[in-house]
TrEMBL record:
<keyword id="KW-0472">Membrane</keyword>
<dbReference type="GO" id="GO:0008932">
    <property type="term" value="F:lytic endotransglycosylase activity"/>
</dbReference>
<comment type="function">
    <text>Functions as a peptidoglycan terminase that cleaves nascent peptidoglycan strands endolytically to terminate their elongation.</text>
</comment>
<keyword id="KW-1003">Cell membrane</keyword>
<dbReference type="Pfam" id="PF02618">
    <property type="entry name" value="YceG"/>
</dbReference>
<keyword id="KW-0812">Transmembrane</keyword>
<dbReference type="InterPro" id="IPR003770">
    <property type="entry name" value="MLTG-like"/>
</dbReference>
<dbReference type="GO" id="GO:0071555">
    <property type="term" value="P:cell wall organization"/>
</dbReference>
<feature type="site" description="Important for catalytic activity">
    <location>
        <position position="221"/>
    </location>
</feature>
<protein>
    <recommendedName>
        <fullName>Endolytic murein transglycosylase</fullName>
        <ecNumber>4.2.2.29</ecNumber>
    </recommendedName>
</protein>
<feature type="transmembrane region" description="Helical">
    <location>
        <begin position="12"/>
        <end position="33"/>
    </location>
</feature>
<dbReference type="GO" id="GO:0009252">
    <property type="term" value="P:peptidoglycan biosynthetic process"/>
</dbReference>
<keyword id="KW-1133">Transmembrane helix</keyword>
<dbReference type="GO" id="GO:0005886">
    <property type="term" value="C:plasma membrane"/>
</dbReference>
<comment type="similarity">
    <text>Belongs to the transglycosylase MltG family.</text>
</comment>
<keyword id="KW-0961">Cell wall biogenesis/degradation</keyword>
<keyword id="KW-0456">Lyase</keyword>
Amino acid sequence: MSRFNISRPILIIIVVILIASIGFMHLTGNVALKGEPKQLVVVKAGMTTDELTEVLFSENLITSPLAFRIQARALRLGDKLKVGEYEIKPGMSNSKIIKMLKEGRVRFLVLTIPEGYTVEQIATKIEKEGFGKAEEIKKLAKDYAPYPYMQTNNPDVIYKAEGFLYPSTYHISFGISESDILRLLVNEFDEQLTPAIRMAITAQNMTIRDAVNMAAMVEKEAVFADEKPLIAGVFRKRLAIGMPIQSDTTIQYILGTQKPEITIADTKIESPYNTYLHQGMPPGPIASPSISTIEAVLNATDTELLYFVADLEGRHHFTKTYEEHLQEIDRIHGPQ
């Protein structure tokens, strides 16, 4: 009986041809899977490429685990996968899936922080939208002050991060931690604080914290942007003559809720943040102002006006004397 001998080089060539054939069939695409909607694949911390391959196969996103592993090794995907959610469309080629994983092109979620939000409002929104726990955000915000201008020794400050969580729209990846969210928001504030704005603050003998402190009150008071410089001018005039700021926004901050109308009893609540009872600025910012509101403070109107009252549309009416102020209140809201 004769024996059919195959030399080692020929055997290697045959194996290579077989692998190439598999590659041609499987590495270039998963054609049979086309036409289905995109699916979310979650890469968890510590997940290996082999584990991910099994997930992709179980979700019918690849047709051959072996083929996928071969190309993943050839393209040096490795096991250092970026944690997150990946949107993969059935029918995508293995090479495109691997490229997406190598580049860490995770699906981003959108988090919008409105102007004038407090730490507690931000924390509630983060939890409601599934980005993290409100209590953890508040716990971290108490002493979170990575930039020197955020730091303060005032024991009455509730949250050192208050005022510095910049209001904007953020694209956040899956699995981000509460501390990472805070870092993202304060880093954005620091980016918005341009050298020109920093110089303007210094030129007016203010600290960044002071500018943000006043801007936070202006942000909460103003409905219309064109009124911000004048509201800031009234606050600065009151400070200059030693008159209490008497901003309802600080009372709202103490109450922790947005009351339709502040009462006389509310203005007598004992708190360092009560600008009716205490002269000067509150211990710290009461909300996160936009950079445009900080600029309004820096460009405050030079005015002799000391009072303002809002009408039903949110427009403010400014007066110089208390008697005129009372008349405006009666005119707008009826006799008190």
